[in-house]
What we know:
By secondary structure, the chain is mainly alpha-helical. It is built from 19 helices and 2 strands. The protein has a single domain, classed as MFS general substrate transporter like domains (Growth Hormone, Chain: A), CATH 1.20.1250. The protein is globular and about 55 Å long.
Amino acid sequence: MLRSRGRLISQIPSPDRLAPLAWSAILILAAAHFAAFVDRSLPSVVAPLIKAQFGLDDTRIGLLQGPAFSTLYALGLLVAGHFIAGRNPYRVAAGCMIVWTAGGVLFALAPDYPSMLAARVALGLGQAAFVPAALMLLTGQGDHGRRARALSTFTTGSATGRSAALLLGGAALAMVAGRSLAGLEPWRAASLMLVLPNLVLIALLVWKARGHEVIGREPRQGLGDAFRLLRTRWRVFAPLLIIGAGAVMVIQATAAWSPSILNRGLGLSPAHAALVAGGVALTFAPVGHLGGGWTLGSAFGRRLGAGPPLAAGMALALAGVLVLAAARVLPAAAAGLAALTIGGGFAAVIALVEVQALTEPRLRPQVGAVYLAFVSLVGVGLGPLLTGVVSDHGATGPGGLAVALAVVVGAAAVVVAGVALTFAGPWRRAAPDI
């Protein structure tokens, strides 16, 4: 036992002796992840309204949804990945929620575009340490199948959070019906409605922190060790970084722009467009995320390996975005969005599970933080932004935004599928070494 600040702290046990994390704890973490993605997805819900109020073009809206959030979020992930060991992960998660909730409130009350950018930066910094804290708990499952199922349940929270932001935001906009509420414009009132329920989850995380034993930090359990592992085994991990970034780019670009595509291309109102996009994503996002985790965690998935499922997920996403770009009626557009949602989520969770499977247990939170920082910086940062840039400079007309999304998603899908099939063999040979 080690003594730290007057408390006894246990040395970290070997993974095969870790008690399985209770499903109640997994579900609380997934709910908090859900809330995180609701809050980070707010600009996509209100994009048509803030575009009109502040006179923004698609590039500036893409900047708001992507780099404004992701740049310091990625940096914060790295810092958190280095210092997270030896701290109570539930308390860290609760502190993160307090900060990012404040950022969400600031966004809802922002008087101008620069204030919105500052609020998004605060939101990103607040969310940065949450995932490393959750990974400390989730990746300590000695059984590969249980770890894959726990991770897929956790990432389902993110997928449903993105979709619920659209669905709940559309419902909130419809509820206020264009009227001001307590002196706030409809988009501000709707944004506050989605942020304030975080207070309940903060209380649950604080409650779970009571009595939780803090695990001691091992001598070699920092970010430097994670980078050394990634450098020495770059042939294994570099392809997964590319794949993860590409899959997240598909997801983020779709989530950011799908309401605007339905609004412009099919003439739906902002509230109706958000409701449709959110309903489709809320229905089909769990299919992709849970399907990916349970497939790779099954005996069949372990025999098959990660390469073919990753390629299949991207093929489905590519088919979906082509259908969406060609759609002239709502059912066809909804079908395209469904395929995009399933395919992107399926590939994203498989990449995350494979990274954890190929990492030695003591470094999983740190390697996970590096991985998520990279995919967030590239996927979250560039997906919405590149789509906006292509829309402003290369695609015109009511269907131009859907064509811009098809260009970005199509390029990412082709790269991800090619890399996955190329490196499927090395991943299978590397797995027995862990």
